[in-house]
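Re: Re: token formats

Sure, here are both.
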Amino acid sequence: MVARQAGGNARQEQQPVGPAPRLYAQVYDIIAARIADGTLAAGTRLQESQLAAEFGISRAPTRQALSELEAGGLVTKAEGRGYIVSGAHKTKPAVRSAPAGPVTLNAGASWERIHAEVESEIIARISFGSWRVNEVAMARHYGVSRTVVRDVMGRLQQRGIVRKDDAGRWLAPALTPDHIGEVYEMRWLLEPAALMKAAPNLPESLLATMSAALDRAIAHAHEIGGEVLDTLEDQLHVQVLSHCRQDTLMRAIVQHQSLLVAHHFLYRWTPQLFSSEPFLPEHREILDLLALGRPRAAADSLERHLKVSRDRAVARVELIKGAFNAEDISFLTLVR
């Protein structure tokens, strides 16, 4: 599912709030490695249910891993159900040092155990409606305590994915055009200000890493998938801004980055909207201005980028509404 994922390799002063490491990425790496070394030969059929059983996880992260493998050209949709391992690969498998054996969840009932999957299940559905989240049903579904569920919900609230309604119940609001517009308006008010504060504190190594990653993405703009796009979004909108050294401002920014988390899902389902991802040259302009020591111009460029991104996000969500059907899950109820 998503995403879309906050973290960084050059943040020394402070760490912004971000999601837990994701199970789907581990599953992706294991299967990609098996395809690369020939363990899974071309023509092998992969079934979501079988893989979920093998790795001892639910079907949601397995489904997302298979979707990422399809986006990278490692598998193709089979007639009927499942996927078929491809004979040729569009992209090289991106192995992220996943465990060599089956994925095993932490036996302890901690929030990390279920956070990524809950986030994915919610994000997969808010494109076409608002959802009530039931803590008791979630605890029963995952076999964890209410305390664990509350920890998960608190972190999703920090990311702006869920909120409390007037009656104190958890609600995951739909990505309506109005809601998307409000979220982006807050972002273009807050993020340029944070960028101005962060610019003097940015390590040269971070800008160099970002520039190289962006150059690779632009060179392969017609091939890259959601994982790469997620990383680029995280680098600019999370890692760079985290150097603003103002906790209150960063908390406000994170609160309005729910769409940054959702982008991974949106990217995967809407590649046909654009021949190549339009934010790539916009990120390039922002980085170039930062490298030239022009933070005010970079902040203005960031504001323009966020304003045009709003309309693209609306277009993606509208397309998904007619193309995606989510399975029922016990702890989410559609709000009519």
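Second one below.
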Amino acid sequence: MSLPRPRSTILTAVASISLLLPVLAACSSDTSSSDAGSSAGSTESAELVVYSGRSEELVGPLFKEFTTETGVTVNARFGDSAELAAQMLEEGDRSPAQIYFSQDAGALGAVEELLATLPESVTSLVPQQYRATNNTWTGVTGRARVIAYDPQSVPAEQVPQSVFELTDEKWRGQVAIAPTNASFQAFVTAMRVTQGDDVTRDWLTGLVNNDVQTYEKNGLILDAVDSGQVQLGLINHYYWYEKAAEVGEDNMRAEVAFMAPKDPGSLVNVAGVGILKGAAENSAAIEFVQWLLSPNTQEWFVNNTYEYPLVEDVASAEGLPELDSLAGPDIALAQLADLPGTLNMLQDVGLL
């Protein structure tokens, strides 16, 4: 997972995206396939430039495996997904990026107009709900939001079934969140879409007023719950499964619960990938995306990250509920594109 950036860097990304979104459509519409052919992103070669919002620690070995199997070198630029999105918007058709690999769907939606329509050989591999409605990007793996809880202080039957319960006075100082984390931000965006800005702002303000505990990363939240520092924490499901595999489930104090169907806290988001317009006809770029969705690579994610695979005939990690059984809020992932609005709201309430 990509590490969160300091407040000043995050706000710079917010400003960059906010300023550049209005001109995005004009920039992309002026870029024809022939014009893009002269950019660095269109060069057909044995090297791919990938802007990756997934960390080098996580996917660096995976990129090297792609090179070993195909002979195509991956020249990766790693960073926060939102910051890389802002950078591509600023670079426009001059961007050297050929592939954008994002940690979440919201950042992909923010640069959708820079992305080429993916071929059917790619889109046919992933169910519609896990890719853009116009097929400019596709999910690679899925993640579910869950509540980590301390069963020594919160019996399973008392775990909140909705994120809206977390502002109750009885949870004062006992709820942990990671507001700089992309997955938390995407979840807040989903709440804005389904519940409206007023409800979402009131909820965030309620958390602040209830002495919510903030951490830089989901893993730190899980550690805090596991050690009894806080009773509840909002995280992605795979953090618990990764730690259980590392230390043994019997050595875990924390447990996780999935929230009620349709609740904003039950969002299933994706890490996803798109091809920049300048590389639309680049066979290596298409091969890279297909490779990410191949059974072997999907199994790699299952075994190494405990995320959900998105292609048929690849089983999820043992112990996970089936992906089809998770009923998230009624929202298309493409609707998570208003990341700037969410970041501004988090700043306004004092969480950034």
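The beta strands are 47-52, 73-78, 99-102, 138-149, 175-177, 213-214, 232-236, 255-257, 268-275, 308-309. The longest helix spans residues 7-29.
- S.
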